[in-house]
Design brief:
single chain, alpha+beta, 2 domains, two-stranded antiparallel sheet
Length: about 130
């Protein structure tokens, strides 16, 4: 049996872009293609140029203010039927979900956790445990 050697095809960025296999994102000098995340509004970007442009215009309050107990109380919490505590869908506060999954489970007088593979965010007053 004769082993076949793998043929390597060398193509340019222009050719890959034409085929739709790569998106070339030109930008100003120093632009880096990497995931960027706005700490105020949770927006995601693929390059530093877009992120820096957004950062200058972003009017959102910083994230740290949105996890204060008073801000968390404004979420549309629903009471549990069979136990003490409340719940919301996790997409109603992706910031809180992110905080819980990274280990921050207490804010103010409440303990927070997720349920059903992060589909729900639950909370219970610490004094009622």
């Amino acid at each position: 049996m004769k082993e076949e050697k793998e043929q390597i095809e060398y193509v340019t960025i222009d050719e890959l872009e034409r085929r739709g296999q790569v998106i070339y994102h030109p930008g100003p000098p120093g632009n880096i293609i990497k995931p960027c995340y706005c700490g105020n509004c949770e927006a995601h970007f693929t390059c530093t140029a877009d992120y820096n442009l957004h950062k200058k215009k972003c009017k959102s309050k910083p994230i740290r203010n949105r996890l204060l107990p008073a801000a968390l109380d404004t979420l549309p919490w629903k009471p549990f039927r069979k136990r003490k505590g409340e719940w919301i869908f996790s997409n109603q506060s992706t910031l809180l979900l992110q905080a819980i999954t990274t280990g921050n489970t207490r804010f103010g007088n409440y303990r927070y956790w997720t349920g059903e593979d992060n589909k729900f965010i639950c909370r219970e007053k610490i004094g009622s445990l």
